[in-house]
Amino acid sequence: MTRRSERSVEQLMKLAGEREMPAADAMERARLAAHDSWQQLLQQAPARAPRRWLKISLGLAAAASVTLFAWLAFPPSSKPVPPAVAARVISLEGGALSHHAAGDTVVFPASDVIAGTTLETAEGRIALTLGDSLSLRMNRHTRLRFDSPAGVTLLAGDIYVDSGGVNAAGRLRIETPAGVVHHVGTQFQVLVAGANTRVRVREGRVLFTPLDAGEPRAVAAGDELRIADGRTELTRGLPSFGAGWDWSAEVAPPFDIESRPLAEFLAWTAREHGWQIRYASAELQQQTYEIRLHGALDQSNADAMFERVSLITGVPLQTRAGVLWVGAAR
Amino acid sequence: MTPNDQDLVGRLLRGERPAFDLFFNEYYPKLYRFVRRRMPRDASGAEDIAQATLCRALESLRSYRGEAALMTWLCTICRREMSARWQENRAYADAAPLAEDDPQIRSALDSLLAAEQADPLLATNREQVRDSIRAALDYLPAPYADILEWKYVREMSVAEIAARLGRTPKATESLLTRAREAFRETFALLGGGPADGAITP
Predict the structure, then answer these.
(1) Residue A321 has what DSSP assignment?
(2) Interchain contact, B17 vs A112, CB within 8 Å
(3) What SS3 string covers B126-152?
(4) Is A282 touching B (CB cutoff 8 A)?
(5) Interface membership of B41 toward A (CB under 8 Å)
(6) Which residue of A has its CA nearest to B12?
(7) Using CB atoms and an 8 Å cut-off, which of residues 87-146 of chain B contact chain A?
């Protein structure tokens, strides 16, 4: 193709602009409907081929009986085994690609991630759930393979895991080039950049088992473990909030505020950002359980969100040095 | 039918979930735009028809014999769906004939060369050319339309596209060349005339 024809393709593409996409909710409705139709198709037995009369020799009959015996001994599976769903995409910021055996596809919200799939974010971020309660988020420029609902392999980049609380049941095994991370009900980050691996814990505890099968090492809240070239370095007393954690809050699935007490919303926000909550008085704390929120809230900017909630509820909200002050800050 | 179509249908019939995701993500937006070009005033109607088409196609997937490309087969079902809706609702009667249905787009390209922006006729022609380009993109194999859009509309660099696809820049450059070639041929087939030199300044 000549330079001139390339330029013409460019001009035509610019003239057309971006292709129109259906609305996200329509797409989701259509996906569910199409999935139902597909399942109906799979449940129907395929139509039989026309019967043909064949002359069967004794030898063939003997072969058939052997086949019949084999079939009775090892009956074939009548249904295709459905592929295991390892995770589900909850929300998506920007674009991301899914690499799997069937080819590469663009990632959509509310889609399942089949075991064996690798998700790759470029300028995008993804929030997913694994199992019932485990939330996993992928930062920009991250490649993560979903081996099973209980295991992922971080190939490159930065992930954040929130099990939903210290006593939550979900367990996840994260393989990295340096070793394996097991969490024990917690909030933590794992980052892989070339030969460097970093595990940083906000709440709870994780166990890191080095690749050389050395002794597992516990990493507790406020700790950061760095592994490079087989050497480990532990730093303690790190804050649970700040720029290093904020990306995970930015990609968090939005909290549905409709008819929920203000106290729940504050607890959710504080957990997402790693803040502590301080109430100006016990009376005010009690009030936050009685105040119900309604409508929708833009949760992409915490300061703007607090300003709006304060305006609606009359309860002053302010963050300072990792503390969410409810009422007048001290 | 391309080997990819054959493979995809086979995997769908075997119940492979990634094949379903691939099928849906690839064809639902294309069918939506296919209907939308014919029903420009009814986005929600287009969504419904695209959905009904996919459901009908999946239910009768075993009847797909592969005489035509999967997209062509889906468009045939889609036309029947549109026709049925049209019988039910006269509001769909505003569906306009399109370049891909009646390939007369070359004259529109000639008009574009005249570059008379204020001419209402030209504005109509320009819209027709846009429709042809978008139709051509929807007839291309999966990654081609995406990378052409990323490169020329979003103005992403080859390196950025390569990173997004997980390929090397060299492989991406080669894919882009094939995508441009496929687009040029498809656009010409749809009556858009040869894309090389069609609207040179």
Answers:
(1) T
(2) yes
(3) HHHHHHHHHHHHHHCCHHHHHHHHHHH
(4) no
(5) no
(6) A38
(7) 126, 129-130, 133-134, 137-138, 142-143, 145-146
Please answer yes or no on whether B153 and A18 come within 8 Å at the CB atom: yes
Q: With an 8 Å Cβ cutoff, are A105 and B47 in contact?
A: no
Using CB atoms, pick whichever of B22, B137, B195 lies closest to residue A103: B22
Other C-beta atoms closer than 10 Å to the C-beta of A75 total 8
Sign (positive/negative) of CA torsion A308, A310, A316, A322? Answer: negative
Residue corresponding to tokens 């909630």: A309
Chain B contact present for A42, CB below 8 A: yes
**Is the CB of B152 less than 8 angstroms away from the CB of A15?**
no
Query: For residues B14 and B65, what is the distance between their CA atoms, to the nearest angstrom?
Result: 16
Residues near B88 by beta carbon (within 8 Å), at least 6 away in sequence: none
Q: d(Cα A79, Cα A177) in Å, to the nearest integer?
A: 38
Q: Which two tokens stand for residue A267?
A: 């607890």
Residues from chain A that touch B12, judged by Cβ atoms under 8 A, are: 38
Instruction: Give the pLDDT of chain A (330 residues) as one tens digit per residue.
Output: 567 677 788 888 888 888 888 887 777 788 888 888 888 888 776 655 444 434 434 444 544 454 444 444 444 444 455 567 889 998 888 888 888 877 788 888 888 898 889 999 988 899 998 876 688 999 999 999 998 888 899 999 999 998 765 444 456 888 888 888 887 667 889 999 988 999 999 888 888 888 766 778 888 888 999 998 878 888 988 888 888 898 888 888 888 888 888 988 998 888 888 888 888 888 888 888 889 888 888 877 888 888 889 988 899 998 888 889 998 765
Query: How far, in Å, are A39, A43, B11, B13, B34 from residue A80 at the CA level?
Result: 11, 10, 11, 9, 33
DSSP H helical ranges for chain B: 3-13, 17-38, 43-59, 70-88, 105-114, 120-139, 142-148, 158-165, 169-187
> Which residue of B lies nearest to A19 if distances are taken between CA atoms?
B134
| Cβ–Cβ < 8 Å for A158, A175 | no
CA distance A230 to chain B (A): 28
Q: Which residues pair with A87 in a beta bridge?
A: A113
